[in-house]
């Protein structure tokens, strides 16, 4: 009879001696252990009070990517094109050209101007000095402010403002096409000028809400805000909703856990221990002065879910041991000895799933990985050490023991049929069906895209306020909110030379032909207009001159947002139809193709800034890191499993169902229209890390029965009766818990909940069916069955 080498009994190993040593320390000093945990818990609970939602623009972008390095190098010049808010102020009386509205607009402009973090020198609206008009007349070139110093609100002044708006070509960009609203462009600084610390987007969004939106809403004014800072602010505001769903999930899991074990005291101890893990995590974050950004704010629930997954195994084993007559203390010690190694292995696998996210060079994902890894580290102490000691005091109630006795005496017809999967006549067809599903999943995942696939902010539902505000701007204005900026650089004072202008103009013409590019704005378009204007408006002169004095004169009349003071950087802004991955990829490829085709000499064409350029860089990083992350997840977790069971065949049997689940998850994302992005990428790594727990616990239990020289089918059936029930319960319970997120106002939370729910179910089914089928063919011969 052939058995895997790890299934053969022998002398205690070093690991077993270490487990015995830890067991003695814990259970011979239970009061000291509980006092230690109480003291640490009180300290960390106090530290947890200082944890606040936190977000930073720099953490949301891949700072190591060349695009972002280029952006940061010229950040001062590019600020009006990148981290920008558009504040849309709608007139309550229809047309904006009335005295009351323009006075109110000036008040709004002043309120926004003095918000901490606003780049006041680059703020632009109808009332700011940088809102200029110019025109060509028979007397030459004339220019002035859109709202002149002589404005007094009279009908003649209002007519003059209308004419100036048309002269300044602001219709469709700063003034709505229907003249019912105006835009205030608000560039933001990365650091708060008062504190010098990174700008707190939550505080900024709150200030915008209270001092601008709510203040002027009382005057009947409708104000809409579009931009990165507002997205982050709305996500942070939704933290209360996330906390509510966390509470609902905890309540649901508590009820289901009681239904499973029928023992209130063990249920409450288990749930409280899992909540204590979350408190420790938050306390350690507070101790390290870390916050929770909008994406890692879901980590506490994931840590709670991991805790429940492990704690159910503890309760299940305790019930079994006490059902056989052991005292609470004896049962706790046996449970600790039986579950410490597989539990620790499973937690290491969980940690690996999180840590591999560090390969993705985006701050929020790295912070999520670190936060979750800290949570798993804490779980080792609370689940492996504290919970067994607590259970040695509370034990299992008589009703719980009756439930265990009923379960032990149950014939389990379902599990008897499931146990048949270790027979070749069942295992082979099941594996073939799994291969078919794998093939279908591979085919469906071909449609999986990188990045956002919807307009607006995909973090929110279409009916959310932000997306409604964004839709209003797109419907009433000509310019897009998706701006891709190419940086055209020259030696100092060379940007206005004919050679530079000629190359840049060819680039603009090439990019205008790219599908998805609506319009282009740049220094060189403004210069051509100025040359035209200086030559009596004759269209024959609307071209560049080789005379440097003509070119310098044309450049001197261009707004500062189009060129730096040294005339060495000229941003070329592309307004795109959307920020979908395909659109961004076409633009990136077109710019790169132009750069390689033409010899630009001393001139450089650098990518990329603007919100669309930053998103393009993010997509590139995710695309290049996704496969590496998945490879690392599977390789490292496989090594952990191999280290535990010392068998490549067993490792393959445990990991294969997880790979199938991953492929099916990606296929589902493709069918749901979900792209691989910051919000969805961690789900896959988390699903693999958490999912391997099922297989580790189930096979460890099978192994103990194999030590008793049982046949494979009998050992698997006995494992199903004990660990199998807890695996099924855990998978279904966690899936129901995260499925409740479907009702969240945050679309990204609802999407993560659905994906995690399906991963929990698929991993559970894979552990109960596919794993034993593979084991029966790979590890055990006919005589073992």
UniProtKB/TrEMBL annotation:
<protein>
    <submittedName>
        <fullName>RND transporter</fullName>
    </submittedName>
</protein>
<feature type="transmembrane region" description="Helical">
    <location>
        <begin position="678"/>
        <end position="699"/>
    </location>
</feature>
<dbReference type="InterPro" id="IPR050545">
    <property type="entry name" value="Mycobact_MmpL"/>
</dbReference>
<dbReference type="Pfam" id="PF03176">
    <property type="entry name" value="MMPL"/>
</dbReference>
<feature type="transmembrane region" description="Helical">
    <location>
        <begin position="372"/>
        <end position="396"/>
    </location>
</feature>
<feature type="transmembrane region" description="Helical">
    <location>
        <begin position="720"/>
        <end position="743"/>
    </location>
</feature>
<dbReference type="GO" id="GO:0005886">
    <property type="term" value="C:plasma membrane"/>
</dbReference>
<dbReference type="InterPro" id="IPR000731">
    <property type="entry name" value="SSD"/>
</dbReference>
<keyword id="KW-1133">Transmembrane helix</keyword>
<feature type="transmembrane region" description="Helical">
    <location>
        <begin position="268"/>
        <end position="291"/>
    </location>
</feature>
<keyword id="KW-1003">Cell membrane</keyword>
<dbReference type="InterPro" id="IPR004869">
    <property type="entry name" value="MMPL_dom"/>
</dbReference>
<feature type="transmembrane region" description="Helical">
    <location>
        <begin position="242"/>
        <end position="261"/>
    </location>
</feature>
<feature type="transmembrane region" description="Helical">
    <location>
        <begin position="297"/>
        <end position="317"/>
    </location>
</feature>
<keyword id="KW-0812">Transmembrane</keyword>
<keyword id="KW-0472">Membrane</keyword>
<feature type="transmembrane region" description="Helical">
    <location>
        <begin position="32"/>
        <end position="51"/>
    </location>
</feature>
<feature type="transmembrane region" description="Helical">
    <location>
        <begin position="338"/>
        <end position="360"/>
    </location>
</feature>
<feature type="domain" description="SSD">
    <location>
        <begin position="266"/>
        <end position="393"/>
    </location>
</feature>
<feature type="transmembrane region" description="Helical">
    <location>
        <begin position="628"/>
        <end position="645"/>
    </location>
</feature>
<feature type="transmembrane region" description="Helical">
    <location>
        <begin position="755"/>
        <end position="780"/>
    </location>
</feature>
<feature type="domain" description="SSD">
    <location>
        <begin position="681"/>
        <end position="777"/>
    </location>
</feature>
């Amino acid at each position: 009879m052939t058995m895997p080498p790890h299934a053969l009994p022998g002398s205690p190993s070093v690991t077993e001696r270490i487990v015995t040593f830890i067991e003695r320390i814990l259970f011979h000093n239970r009061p000291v252990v509980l006092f230690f945990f109480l003291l640490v818990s009180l300290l960390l609970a106090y530290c947890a009070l200082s944890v606040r939602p936190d977000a930073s623009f720099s953490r949301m972008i891949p700072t190591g990517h060349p695009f972002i390095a280029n952006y940061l190098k010229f950040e001062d010049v590019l600020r009006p094109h990148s981290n920008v808010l558009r504040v849309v102020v709608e007139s309550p009386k229809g047309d904006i050209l009335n005295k009351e509205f323009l006075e109110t607009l000036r008040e709004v402009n002043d309120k926004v101007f003095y918000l901490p973090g606003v780049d006041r020198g680059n703020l632009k609206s109808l009332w700011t000095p940088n809102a200029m008009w110019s025109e060509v007349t028979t007397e030459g070139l004339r220019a002035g402010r859109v709202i002149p110093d002589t404005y007094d609100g009279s009908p003649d002044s209002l007519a003059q403002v209308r004419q100036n708006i048309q002269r300044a070509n602001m219709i469709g960009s700063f003034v709505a096409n229907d003249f019912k609203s105006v835009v205030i462009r608000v560039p933001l600084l990365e650091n708060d000028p008062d504190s010098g610390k990174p700008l707190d987007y939550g505080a900024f969004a709150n200030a915008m809400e209270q001092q601008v939106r709510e203040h002027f809403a009382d005057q009947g004014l409708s104000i809409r805000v579009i931009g990165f800072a507002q997205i982050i602010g709305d996500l942070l505001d939704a933290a209360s909703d996330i906390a509510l769903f966390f509470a609902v999930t905890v309540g649901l899991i508590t009820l289901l856990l009681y239904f499973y074990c029928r023992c209130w005291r063990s249920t409450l101890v288990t749930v409280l221990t899992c909540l204590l893990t979350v408190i420790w995590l938050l306390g350690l974050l507070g101790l390290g002065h870390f916050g929770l950004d909008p994406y890692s704010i879901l980590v506490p629930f994931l840590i709670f879910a991991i805790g429940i997954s492990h704690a159910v195994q503890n309760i299940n084993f305790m019930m079994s041991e006490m059902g056989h007559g052991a005292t609470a203390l004896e049962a706790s010690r046996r449970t600790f000895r039986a579950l410490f190694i597989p539990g620790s292995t499973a937690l290491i696998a969980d940690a690996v799933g999180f840590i591999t996210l560090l390969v993705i060079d985006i701050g929020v994902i790295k912070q999520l990985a670190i936060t979750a890894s800290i949570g798993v580290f804490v779980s080792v102490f609370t689940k492996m050490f504290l919970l067994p000691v607590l259970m040695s005091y509370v034990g299992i109630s008589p009703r719980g023991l009756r439930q265990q006795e009923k379960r032990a005496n149950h014939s389990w017809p379902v599990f008897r049929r499931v146990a048949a999967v270790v027979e070749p006549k069942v295992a082979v067809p099941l594996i073939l069906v799994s291969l078919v599903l794998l093939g279908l999943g591979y085919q469906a995942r071909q449609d999986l895209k990188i990045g956002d696939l919807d307009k607006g902010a995909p973090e929110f539902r279409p009916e959310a306020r932000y997306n409604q505000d964004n839709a209003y701007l797109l419907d009433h204005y000509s310019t897009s909110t998706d701006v891709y900026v190419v940086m055209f650089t020259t030696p100092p004072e060379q940007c206005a030379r004919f050679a530079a202008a000629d190359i840049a103009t060819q680039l603009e013409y090439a990019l205008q032909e790219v599908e998805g590019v609506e319009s282009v704005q740049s220094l060189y378009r403004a210069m051509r207009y100025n040359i035209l204007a200086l030559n009596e408006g004759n269209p024959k002169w609307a071209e560049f001159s080789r005379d440097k004095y003509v070119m310098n004169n044309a450049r001197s009349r261009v707004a500062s947002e189009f060129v730096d003071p040294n005339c060495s950087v000229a941003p070329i802004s592309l307004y795109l139809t959307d920020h979908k991955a395909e659109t961004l990829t076409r633009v990136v490829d077109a710019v790169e193709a132009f750069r390689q085709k033409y010899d630009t000499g001393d001139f450089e064409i650098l990518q990329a800034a603007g919100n669309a350029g930053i998103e393009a860089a993010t997509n590139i990083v995710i695309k290049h890191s996704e496969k590496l992350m998945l490879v690392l997840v599977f390789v490292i977790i496989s090594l952990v499993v191999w280290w535990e069971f010392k068998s490549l065949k067993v490792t393959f049997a445990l990991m294969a169902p997880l790979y199938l689940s991953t492929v099916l998850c990606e296929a589902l994302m493709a069918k749901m229209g979900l792209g691989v992005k910051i919000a969805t990428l961690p789900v896959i790594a988390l699903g693999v890390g958490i999912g391997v727990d099922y297989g580790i616990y189930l096979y460890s239990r099978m192994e103990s029965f194999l030590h008793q020289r049982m046949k494979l089918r009998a050992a698997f059936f006995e494992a199903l009766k004990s660990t199998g029930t807890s695996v099924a319960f855990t998978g279904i319970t966690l899936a129901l818990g995260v499925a409740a997120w479907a009702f969240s106002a945050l679309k990204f939370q609802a999407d993560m909940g659905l994906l995690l729910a399906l991963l929990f179910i698929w991993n559970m089914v894979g552990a109960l069916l596919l794993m034993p089928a593979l084991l029966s063919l790979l590890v055990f011969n006919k005589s073992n069955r």
